[in-house]
Design brief:
Layout lengths: L3 E2 H8 L2 E3 L8 E2 L1 E3 L9 E4 L12 H6 L4 E5 L12 E4 L2 H16 L5 E6 L4 H12 L5 E3 L9 H7 L7 E5 L7 H9 L3 E4 L7 H4 L2 H9 L10 E5 L6 H5 L5 E6 L6 E8 L4 E5 L3 E5 L6 H14 L4 H8 L10 E5 L2 E6 L5 H12 L6 E6 L8 H14 L4 E5 L1 H10 L7 E5 L2 H11 L5 E5 L7 H14 L4
Parallel strand pairs: 4-5, 5-6, 6-7, 8-10, 8-11, 9-10, 11-12, 12-13, 13-14, 18-22, 19-20, 19-22, 20-21
Antiparallel strand pairs: 1-3, 2-7, 14-15, 15-16, 17-18
Helix pairs in contact: 3-5, 4-10, 4-11, 10-11, 12-13, 13-14, 15-16
Length: 468
């Protein structure tokens, strides 16, 4: 963060500063929301959530070095702190106002802000762009999945004075969230990775999802860049009306300016041809990652990185944990895709797994959440895809997936099905059925906690290998 005086911060927050010292003599060097991570020079923002209340930890944050706190003016603890306090109506909204001010008034013009949204592939694309750009430029990217009204401000506020790029991830599970965060971010470049059946409960049908994701294009700065995957036709009305800057379309659609062709995948890697002339290799399974790489290519080239440098960087990209990260344990190939799932991403995983070769393929598939009225049909559809792909074993985890498997897979099917209520039961079944030489692909919504299955498989393999 570029240091700011406390009086400037208070004005940007839209709050009232209560301090025994002159706010102009207090400098803020960083914004923190976790008292355990507070450091000297921090501004601690107390956030009241469903399971915790950050106001309870203001004193701890100050003891760790925070020089001021932001609190809700009606909170009973707001008046008990001896350190400077900025009182606001809503601490989350106030942090968003500070981030918007920081982006427009503090960040230098040399910092290119890149905002990424989409139904699938946001985090992977964010990591790819950061991986490619950091070889020649200084910048920051949103950590983890900082993609909401708390994470986006924190990402913007983390950008230092020498940042040449800032990569922001924008998520949504309700209408209007992308537009609000895009307005705050005011991106120089916007990326829409995909349109798919995600958060249907809050967003509605594919047309509504396309409208939600497409709203980011209305906030691109004049002369900026829009990179859009046009493989889903619902996004096209928003692509056609974009006139604010340069448009770069990507995808397998032959009409895409950066057209992806010949995409193939193994259990360890994937490859494709871009623009009919660039051969691109990714050290991660999943042919669907070709469009994420194409978007990365578009952004990096727009920022002046040479094409051959981009391709070289992509070839040593490491997949984020939980997003088609492939590794081997005791002779078993494990594809950790457990972070999240929706129908499109599951179908992409099944398609890649289908082409995995002669190894025995075990798909661990958890419930896909927030699908609303379409849930039953979507679960049955993905189970049907697994059946059609002639996978060897399906471990269905959760009520929706087990019901879908029971309704969709015939009793005489070659694909064996194990129904499990949760991740723990799935782990116990895998202990019985997994053998060296097998491949296990693990995917499900975050709440299904299938990362525990990944850890269990890796841990079991370590013990069998004689390692502690």
């Amino acid at each position: 963060m570029i240091p700011l005086k406390l009086d400037v911060v208070a004005d940007a927050l839209g709050g009232v500063c209560r301090s025994d010292d002159d706010p102009q003599t207090i400098t803020i060097h960083r914004v923190a929301i976790d008292s355990r991570d507070a450091q000297t020079g921090d501004l601690y923002v107390a956030i009241r959530g469903e399971r915790f209340d950050g106001h309870r930890f203001m004193a701890e944050a100050v003891s760790r070095g925070a020089v001021a706190c932001v609190a809700q003016r009606d909170h009973p603890l707001a008046g008990e702190l001896s350190a400077p306090v900025i009182l606001v109506d809503d601490t989350v909204k106030a942090m968003g106002r500070l981030a918007s001010y920081y982006r427009r008034e503090v960040l230098p013009a040399s910092a290119t802000v890149i905002a990424i949204t989409g139904s699938n592939g946001k985090t992977t694309t964010k990591r790819m762009i950061d991986h490619v750009l950091r070889r020649s430029l200084t910048g920051v990217a949103a950590p983890k999945n900082f993609n909401n009204d708390i994470g986006v401000p924190l990402t913007l506020l983390s950008a230092p004075a020498n940042a040449r790029y800032v990569v922001v991830e924008i998520g949504s599970n309700a209408k209007g969230e992308v537009a609000a965060l895009a307005e705050m971010t005011a991106p120089d470049a916007a990326v829409i990775t995909s349109i798919g059946e995600a958060h249907m409960e809050g967003l509605g049908d594919l047309e509504a999802i396309a409208a939600e994701k497409g709203s980011i294009l209305d906030h691109v700065r004049p002369g900026g860049l829009a990179v859009v995957n046009i493989d889903q036709p619902e996004i096209m009305p928003f692509v056609r009306r974009f006139t604010r800057g340069r448009l770069m379309t990507v995808g397998a659609n032959p009409q895409a300016k950066l057209c992806v062709g010949g995409a193939t995948s193994t259990l360890r890697s994937s490859s494709f041809r871009l623009e009919g002339r660039f051969d691109v290799h990714l050290p991660m399974p999943g042919a669907h990652h070709a469009t994420n790489a194409a978007a990365t290519f578009a952004v990096a080239r727009w920022l002046g990185v040479a094409s051959d440098e981009i391709i070289t960087s992509l070839a040593d990209f490491t997949a984020p944990e939980g997003r088609t990260r492939s590794f081997e344990a005791a002779g078993v190939t494990i594809i950790d895709d457990a972070y999240n799932a929706n129908p499109a991403s599951v179908e992409a995983a099944v398609a890649s797994f289908r082409a995995a070769g002669d190894t025995r393929r075990i798909l661990v598939l958890g419930d896909m959440l927030e699908l609303g009225e379409t849930s039953r049909a979507c679960h049955e559809r993905v189970v049907g895809k697994a059946l059609a792909a002639e996978l060897d074993v399906l471990v269905a985890v959760g009520a929706e997936m087990t019901r879908a498997a029971a309704r969709t897979v015939p009793s005489d099917a070659a694909m064996r099905v194990y129904a499990c209520k949760d991740a723990a039961e799935a782990s116990r079944w895998l202990d019985r059925i997994v053998s060296p030489g097998d491949a296990v692909w693990i995917k499900g919504s975050r709440a299904m906690r299938l990362d525990e299955v990944v850890s269990h498989l890796a841990g079991t393999a370590d013990r069998e290998d004689g390692r502690a």
